[in-house]
Amino acid sequence: LHMGKTMKEDLTVVVKYIKPLYPPEFNVFSTYAELYHNYFASQAKKNAESHLEDKDIYLLLSWVHNIYPKDMRKDHVLAEELEKVKLGSLLPSSLSKELEKKYLDSEEATIKNSLSRCLDKEIQRWKEDKEPEKLNGHFQSELLAIFVIQSIYSGQKRAKDISTAVGEELSHRLSKELPAFLKSYKDAFEDFKEKSKKHRYYKPILIANINNCWNFR
């Protein structure tokens, strides 16, 4: 953030006050822009090659795909001049792809584990001597559907905020995780139906879970 702010502010000064003092052939802005970019890119590469936590990988990818090319280089004062310089990306393509894979693997695993824990809690609720909650007069097990849908949607949105391609790849991966989760849910529900017929709230729990189907669809 400090480097980005410094680069943006300093290049703005170069455009407004320094460039007019030199003949055009000196390419003053290009010189400054390339030096700042090369330093910024070297630091980004250094960070990318070190051990990064998941949140740091996300932040670095956001800089590479989003903040740097869109917020900084499309700045209304700098955009026209930067377009002439052709600075390139903050990271080499191979390193960027490597980070993207780490991020996608981690995000997929996180969402998968989150869905699994949510289902475990739901199954535990079925075993309690407690009637399911009602929504608009109907038994619902709505927290499960809401949590699952929000988890997947939030994951897709975070990935899409990095880049369209990363968002599409995560959506493709999650399109396999959701059916797997729904199968686990169905298997657990069938097991409950078979083994818990003497449960005090057997029928309301069945109705609540059947009502979940609409939400998942």
Automatic annotation (TrEMBL):
Cellular component GO terms, alphabetical: exocyst
Database matches in InterPro entries: EXOC3/Sec6
Biological processes per GO annotation: exocyst localization; exocytosis
One MF annotation (Gene Ontology) recorded for this entry: SNARE binding
UniProt-listed Pfam families: Sec6 (PF06046)
Protein name (database record): TNAP2 protein
Provenance organism: Burhinus bistriatus
Lineage of producing organism: Eukaryota, Metazoa, Chordata, Craniata, Vertebrata
